[in-house]
Specification:
By secondary structure, this protein is of the alpha+beta class. It contains 14 helices and 12 strands. It folds into 2 domains: about 1-70, no CATH class; about 110-370, no CATH class. Strand 6 (about 240-245) and strand 7 (about 250-255) form a beta hairpin. The radius of gyration is 28 Å and the shape is globular. The termini are far apart.
């Protein structure tokens, strides 16, 4: 914990709170806290981050009462998510339960351990026996449509590089959704935060740049970058994405991102492009036969300048693409209707602060998805082989029949 003190007395007080914030059992420290005024305690606690503030609230009754104040949690949220520094967002957070609840809901990551295993001995690769009418049940239910409207959702998006705010945005509703009977519900779901073309600089107002000013390492050339991957590794280690989805009707919020990249591709589709993938495994027990879905948050950077240490010219990356899509276990992008229902179910799913546990869950999903693709390829190969053998058998039978027919003459 870093504290900026003004007097020696406050310095001693901050040190005491720092020890008590770690839930120390020493009674002497609790007695020291009781001797401080509420104003001093409030001034100290407002300098803590969310985790330290929560721990300090467990130390004693005085700290517990002060740590429940919304002003403290508002400061924490605004520091953690710059997108919350807007009056309309503040009103939204208050309407869904306040900043303390918002932090508890969105500082944790989605944890889904209910990833089904591939069933290779059945025609249906998943254990659930859904027929077509069950699968499309939600498409015909007007009641369910009313419960998951695009206008109910608000996206709060924040990008940080090495704990520095790089980009923030707020999206009210779902872009390009034109009502319950429109194309949105039947077309692949996609939210494009922005899409800039590096070839057309005239239309790229508001483009986000990342350079050595933001502690980005300099590279002498793209050829050298392809060899050592220094820029790629630093980008993977330093970039963080938060994509919070708030439902105004349900008064719930969830962070759909994995904070750090789950994977990516270097030099795709060109030598100057880096693609990073974030996301989470969402529950979809009432929406999809496979019972899970993958939220994919794709971020794309374009190398606009490799820089030069001799001239002092910085290396520069441009953030050219950021979007969200939701896909099923087979890699098929869900349409707008099913995506809204999946997002609605994700609002009340299980969360965890253990990043490694969340990462293991995502890797488990990818492993099962890979097994499913391999099984589909094997099934297609078996089908192709069967067709080939059948074709050869039919051709041989026709040849035998023709031979016997002509042999009679």
């Amino acid at each position: 914990m870093t504290c900026y003190v003004k007097t020696d007395d406050l310095s001693c007080s901050y040190a005491a709170v720092d020890r008590v914030a770690s839930v120390s059992p020493v009674k002497k420290e609790v007695a020291n806290m009781a001797s401080l005024s509420a104003d001093i305690l409030h001034d100290i606690l407002k300098r803590l981050d969310g985790a330290a503030l929560a721990r300090a609230g467990c130390a004693c009754a005085e700290l517990r009462d002060i740590s429940k104040e919304e002003e403290l949690w508002e400061n924490v949220c605004r520091s953690m998510w710059p997108s919350t520094n807007h009056d309309d967002v503040r009103s939204l957070i208050i309407s869904v339960g306040g900043f303390r609840k918002f932090y508890a809901d969105c500082s944790t990551l989605i944890l889904n351990k209910d990833v089904p295993s591939v069933q290779t001995n059945k025609t249906n690769l998943f254990a659930e026996e859904w027929d077509e009418s069950d699968y499309y049940h939600y498409f015909n239910g007007t009641d369910e449509l009313e419960k998951a409207l695009p206008s109910d959702f608000v996206s709060l998006i924040d990008i940080q590089y090495k704990d520095r705010a790089l980009y923030s945005d707020i999206i009210w509703g779902i872009p390009s959704s034109d009502g319950a009977n429109g194309w949105f519900y039947n077309c692949p779901f996609r939210i494009d935060v922005f899409h800039h073309s590096p070839e057309n600089d005239d239309n790229n107002d508001g483009e986000v740049f990342l350079s050595t000013i933001n502690d980005l390492p300099s590279v002498p050339s793209l050829e050298q970058e392809r060899k050592d991957g220094k820029l790629w590794r630093d980008l993977n280690d330093g970039i963080k994405l938060s994509w919070i989805m708030v439902n105004r009707k349900m008064k719930l919020a969830v962070n759909l991102s994995s904070w750090h990249p789950l994977g990516g591709q270097r030099h795709w589709p060109t030598d100057t492009d880096f693609v990073l993938r974030f996301g989470s495994v969402l529950p979809a027990k009432e929406v999809l036969p496979c019972q899970v879905a993958k939220c994919i948050l794709l971020m794309k950077f374009h190398v606009t300048n490799t820089g030069s240490e001799e001239t002092g010219e910085p290396s520069t990356l441009a953030l050219t693409e950021l979007n969200m899509q939701i896909e099923d276990m087979e890699g098929v992008h869900l349409n707008g209707h099913r995506s809204l229902l999946v997002l609605k179910e994700a609002l009340s799913c299980h969360r965890s602060r253990n990043y490694s546990e969340v990462l293991d869950s995502c890797h488990s999903y990818l492993r099962v998805q890979s097994e499913l693709k391999e099984e589909k390829i094997r099934s297609e190969c078996r089908f192709d082989t069967l067709c080939l053998v059948g074709g050869i058998t039919v051709f041989a039978a026709l040849c035998v029949m023709c031979y016997r027919k002509f042999d009679r003459f």
